[in-house]
Amino acid sequence: MTTTKTIPHDRLRAVVGDIFRAGGCEAAEARDIADHLVDANLAGHDSHGAIRVAKYIDWQQRGMVLPNRRLETLRDDGMLLMLDGGFGYGQSLGLQAMAAAIERARTAGVVVMALRNVGHLGRIGAWAEMATAAGLLSVHFVNTSGFGTLVAPHGGSDRRLSANPIAAGVPMPDGAPMILDMSTCVIAEGKIQVARNKGVALPAGAVLDGHGQPTRDAEAFYAEPVGAILPIAAHKGSGLSILCEVLAGALTGGGSSHPDNPSAGRLVNNMLTILIDAESLSGRAAFAADVARLKDWVKASPPLEAGGDVLVPGEPERRTRQARLAGGVPLDPATRQQIAQAAAMVGLDPAIVEQAAG
């Protein structure tokens, strides 16, 4: 277990699903979690992929995330849905919530869905992809009201905000949607974990150590006192992050990031989602024609570098997915070891990871 190995995605899904099923998740929920995590790897977002398995199992065994939860509907007023997840797995609860909101948007034209008190929702772009597959536009704001406070505000030096991702999806007439999936901080905490596992340096200008000094050492981020991630684009990213706290946290009732929250001892995500059927505004045909024209116009820009390419949101993930579907998901030795340890924690043979790698 000394080199990075590639594992076929179907084998990795089976291993991850077996671990969560052995850990107490119902078969459908285990499959939902495995699909979401491995799909993140396929999209190139390893920070939200199989590297999360060991952490999720640890949280579950400590009672910080609960298996097999069902959504509680707190409010249902036509175009408004307020749902509570009771601290269950974000992957399965996110699917339930998005399915309910999509069904409503198809009839109402527009729906605002507030989802609160769920475990880690994973790669938020996946929820935008789910909306575009149904022919709907979507915008998603997410915050963490539990212990996921990681980010320093503009001008600050310690953790006050969570990573606070924003995602959006635009269905396109060619079937390849535009998917924006971004954090409001320079680097996702999961990417710091990836760098730590690989033993590589962090990008410059992304992280402060616990003394408020810039660092490229992933270990320094986790040391005592803990470090902090910087917001993107200085005050602009900090402003967007605070907006996420307001929309995803305060407005949903899940709470903004604060150590005095009742749920501060566990990781809790909250998400505000807006779904729109273009037919209810400009009309689907006119909308499709205009966004297609926009995409063509943008991509026709002469590349800045010779041999370069002009990309629109979602294209990098599609390219990575195509390559990894064919060639497998690369997992470094530390990540494989962590997944093997998670297997052992739920009574499975830890060798299943290396066996999957062939």
UniProtKB/TrEMBL annotation:
It comes from Stella humosa. Keywords: Oxidoreductase. Gene3D superfamilies: 1.10.1530.10, Hypothetical oxidoreductase yiak, domain 2 (3.30.1370.60). GO terms for molecular function: oxidoreductase activity. Belongs to the LDH2/MDH2 oxidoreductase family. InterPro entries: Mal/L-sulf/L-lact_DH-like_ah, Mal/L-sulf/L-lact_DH-like_NADP, Mal/L-sulfo/L-lacto_DH-like_sf, Malate/L-lactate_DH-like. The keyword Transferase does not apply. This is Putative oxidoreductase. SUPFAM superfamilies: L-sulfolactate dehydrogenase-like.
